[in-house]
Amino acid sequence: MTCTSLAARPLHAWDYALSKIVCEQLTFGHARRHHLRVTAIRLFNVVGARQTDRVVVPTFLGQARRNEAITLHGDGTQSRCFTDVRDAVEGLVRLADCDAAVDETINIGSRNELSVRQLAQHVKSVTGSDSSIETVPYDFQMIPSRVPCLGKARQLIG
Prior knowledge:
This protein has helices spanning 3-8, 13-33, 56-65, 85-96, 116-127, 151-157, and strands at residues 40-43, 46-47, 70-73, 79-81, 83-84, 105-108, 113-115, 133-136, 145-146. By secondary structure, it is α/β, with parallel strands linked by helices. The protein has a single domain, classed as UDP-galactose 4-epimerase, domain 1 (Alpha-Beta Complex), CATH 3.90.25.10. The strands form four sheets. A three-stranded mixed β-sheet has the order 7-4-9. Strands 1-6 form a two-stranded parallel ribbon. Helix 3 (56-65) packs parallel to helix 5 (116-127). The longest helix has 21 residues, at 13-33. It is elongated. The model is unreliable at 1-9 (pLDDT under 50).
């Protein structure tokens, strides 16, 4: 396989997960070598003001406000847990002041699961939009449900 074909192939969920784990482990190794204190924090679907339309919530809002079709990649049954940016920032601040978080990987997020179709319907309702909700094929391996394990965060920062 050439470099071109590697770059052109669809990204799979396991590629993404593996790259995050490798990056975290490289960071921990560098920190140990140089006597640094680090914490790996995984943020789950953070949403808030001034967010770009490269992620699902502002994309759906933009489509609804323009009365364009709200497009769901895949069938829309995949679910996510969305986290308000203010809650994520509070978690980051608390973890920055938590000695027990050093050398740990900690998830910050919500456990309130919502399907992407439900999100589209909610956005349509809140905006009063006449947009249709349509599905489009997606060549990325869709993870059906992404719910963070928050046990470590609860234990460390409440």
